[in-house]
Amino acid sequence: MTRRDVTAAARKLFAEHGYEQTTVAMIAREARVSPATVYAQCGGKEGLLSTLMDMWTTSPTVGRIISDAAEGLTGRDKLRILADGYVAHAAEAGDIMRIVERAAASSTPAEEFMEIADSRHTEALEIITKGIADVGELADGLSVTDAAKIVYFHFRNPQLVLASETFGWGIDRAQRWLLERVEAAILKP
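The chain above was modelled as a monomer; its predicted structure follows.
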């Protein structure tokens, strides 16, 4: 219970104030525990950021996206399932993604956590793009690894946020537009 409360407090405060500006004392106050408890139970700010990154990259949603995409019969089915999964995952953990992405700009540990997150992301995408190759629908001359990189480039959280929020397209239009670009780039015509 304590660890969960401290993690929730850190998630809230990192989102509101940023990783660098949030102190262990602020987290402890929000969670109604002592600063010593934040260090002992959660490893301080770095431990909490690592926990949040793990929540983002190993959530049940990620596993569900991979398994649902594996069930898709065509490459387009697999990509549609993946695009729907990106939207669901962003709704679930988009705040964590932004926290870690922003923290990585000024914190070496956060930069390392971002590298782990990116690695996990591309590994999951390679599983899905291999499924597309297995049904014979990956574009000629395109490797599974390169296909995964193309999907990563288009659908990672900053691009989804850029299209949906910054461009003002909303999530449906952004998802549709990104999906069309990925389909054109990695599927056979």
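The chain is about 80% helix and 0% strand.
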